[in-house]
Design goal:
It is built from 12 helices and 16 strands. The protein has 407 residues and is of the alpha/beta class. Bound molecules: zinc ion. InterPro entries: Amidohydro-rel, DNase_TatD-rel_CS, Metal-dep_hydrolase_composite, Metal_Hydrolase, Metallo-dep_Hydrolase, OTAase-like.
């Protein structure tokens, strides 16, 4: 059974120039061909979805989310007080929210126990419709480290090796390591968490099992240590320099990072979502007002650092940290708008959320671009995202594996 999708243009996710007047041919759940011009005679009579003036894109990929969280301001410490059953349900609902927005793949960067892995399994079994899940299980962290309550605590070279093996046994697609502290009370975002030997051991163990490893880094030293350890990716790449949360950008570290070729997920949307939420409220308490001022500062600094890192030659994939604070599971367009503000072209942000994202998270043989043979994960939006990324919110059709979900 074939299906055709027609629109004004098609962006295939590889960075190639858009195809004008395209006909996307879908067959057996996969992309069969991308044609241009009128429907060929041999395909006449095929079921056709026609969207005049619209743009066809690959389904989007959010490379950094936390499925256990609702994205309504609930913090993870509170969310994990619920049973794992509630966390599984919350996670499943998150995949539905994303899918409706045309985000057909989510990569979870740390969930409690095996909750995200189990949601991935239910979706693989075909028990319902939700964005495809790529999961690390628990984020590996030092005892008492950032998000320790998810169950990923490990210490010492032998201990961290064992933890990597446990995550692989659980079914982890990749390994996530908290290389610095973070927002968790009692952790130090301005200091590295693991020793160099521990980081080296985790990357070595992940690679022995053909898994990629990514490191959460909020301070410059943790970035340097993660580069040294040979991580495949970094999350955030922040420059927090002391306990006040002040960030001091270090060009020498940026240069090292650029030279390493390691891609970074920027997660700019976290700040963007906090500003959207608090600025949208009719009134703020004193605490909220102070929180807003703090985030206005840090969002501006994050954007500045994003721009500097890009100019130094660091490459970025799109990832929102959805679930965290007020970041929603349909917020990938917000991340892309901020990436554009940080110096990327609209096309570059689209590639960073499709073809390049798929490559970085090791799913490019399944999805990420409208290439013959790949899953027919498709998003059709009402206007041209190249002239205005906000068009990505004007969802007309979502297809996953050739199945029409929203039309
Ligand atoms: Zn995160």
């Amino acid at each position: 059974m074939k299906t055709l999708i027609k629109a004004a243009q098609l962006i295939d996710g590889t960075g190639a120039a858009p195809v004008q007047d395209p006909v996307l041919v879908v067959s057996g759940g996969k992309v069969e061909a991308v044609l241009s011009g009128p429907v060929p005679a041999e395909l006449s009579g095929t079921e056709t979805h026609d969207y005049p003036g619209a743009t066809i894109l690959p389904g989007l990929i959010d490379t950094h989310v936390h499925l256990n969280l609702p994205g309504d301001g609930t913090i993870l410490e509170d969310a994990v007080r619920e049973t794992e059953g509630v966390l599984v349900a919350t996670s499943a609902l998150a995949t539905v929210k994303a899918l409706k927005a045309g985000i057909t793949t989510l990569r979870d960067l740390g969930a409690k126990g095996r909750t995200a892995i189990d949601v991935r399994r239910a979706l693989q079994l075909g028990h319902g419709e939700g964005a495809r899940v790529v999961a690390c299980g628990q984020a590996i962290t030092i005892t008492g480290g950032h998000v320790w309550y998810l169950g990923g605590e490990a210490d010492g070279v032998d201990g961290v090796r064992k933890k990597v093996r446990e995550m692989i046994k659980l079914g982890a697609d990749f390994i996530k390591v908290m290389a610095s502290g973070g927002g968790t009370v009692g952790t130090q975002s301005w200091n590295p968490a693991f020793s160099q030997e521990e980081l080296n051991a985790m990357v070595d163990e992940a690679h022995r099992f053909d898994r990629k490893a990514t490191a959460h880094c909020l301070c410059a030293r943790s970035i340097e240590m993660a580069i040294e350890a040979g991580f495949d990716q970094l999350e955030h790449a922040g420059f927090i320099s002391d306990r006040t949360g002040r960030q001091v950008y270090e060009p020498a570290v940026a240069e090292k990072l650029a030279k390493s070729g390691i891609p970074v997920t920027g997660t700019l949307a976290v700040g963007g979502a906090v500003l959207r939420e608090l600025r949208g409220r009719p009134s703020l308490t004193e605490t909220e007002a102070a929180f807003l001022v703090r985030w206005e500062k840090s969002a501006a600094q994050n954007l500045y650092q994003f721009r500097q890192l890009r100019e130094a030659g660091v490459s970025f994939v799109a990832g929102t940290d959805a679930g965290w604070r007020f970041t929603r599971f349909d917020d990938l367009p917000l991340e892309m708008e901020l990436m554009q503000e940080g110096g990327m072209t609209a096309m570059e942000t689209i590639v960073s959320a499709t073809g390049y994202a798929a490559k970085v998270i090791d799913i490019e043989t399944q999805t990420g671009s409208l290439t013959p043979g790949l899953a027919a994960d498709v998003l059709v939006v009402g206007a041209d995202p190249l002239s205005h990324l906000a068009a990505l919110r004007d969802v007309r059709l979502v297809m996953q594996g050739g199945k029409v979900l929203t039309a």
